Amino acid sequence: MASAKKTKYRFTFGPWNISQGADPFGPTVRKEVPFAAKIREYKNLGFDGVQFHDDDAVPNLDELTPAEIAKAAQKVKKMLDGEGLFCEFVAPRLWEHPKTIDGGYTANSSSDRKYALERSKKAVDIANIMGTRDIVLWLAREGTYIRESKDPIQAVGRIVDAANMLLAYDPNIRILGEMKPNEPTDSAFCPTVGHFMGLAYRTTDPNRVGVLIESAHSILAGIDPSEDMAYALWHGKLWSVHLNDQNGLKYDQDKSFGSVDLRRAFNTVWVLERGGFDGCVGLDVKAMRTTKQADQTKHLANSLEIFNRLVDVVRNVNVERIEEYRQARDYEGLELFVINTLMGRKA
Is 195 considered catalytic here? Predict the structure, then answer.
């Protein structure tokens, strides 16, 4: 797994990453930034594209006619074009509406499942107007709080059925599964990348079903993100990433990339670079709640700087020395070599 080609990475984030700082234990601490003002920040921060939930692009879309949805999406597309930005993907938000309280695709209620499928079709329609073929499925509530509340075998089949419905609805889209083992549900039906990729091969068109891997989600599952990414790269199914960091196995923190474990971040960049990853490098990071209004985009700028500096480290690391350590089975020496590399010391 080695690539001599130096990728020119494209960087994206979602407008929700410029946030007001609310958490489950306290209210907002910063003023809301208007959507248009957020979009104007992208190029200033060095980013190329925007990630969207369906209702980021078209607020209150459940209350709109198809023509009204199209008109609203076209307005946002014009805004992106004016800023020189592209839409990376559209994700149906299937975890906030009352009809998704028990899940979307796997809800016990047939009318709730129908809502989730229709909402997903609307996301595809928006994606077409926005100029992207990628639909991200974060299966947030496709799981249980108590195991007996749903049939887990039937639930997996329902997720496959939903994917097949989307593939049939538009023959050009790609589906990117974004997996997370818990939160908001206690136990997810597809908790890891491997679970979803196994499911992908049972769809009607596996070539159009891949994954988006988020660093924090892998960490929450007890998996190093670089191993998840390497696995998906080998299958040719790593189509996007969400880079961030995480303090252990707790709630999803979305800390700045590389801010907790620089070595883990180094290995993430190493795998992306050596594996010839050509998808977008997306960030999904939150500003700390204590962050002042004037500093509320620093976490994005910092994450981008750390990624680019690690790319430089990876591209200049002495791979011959690494191979020598491998062949000699001198892993203690290799470990010190890596640490010295990260500390800027020539070994």
Answer: no
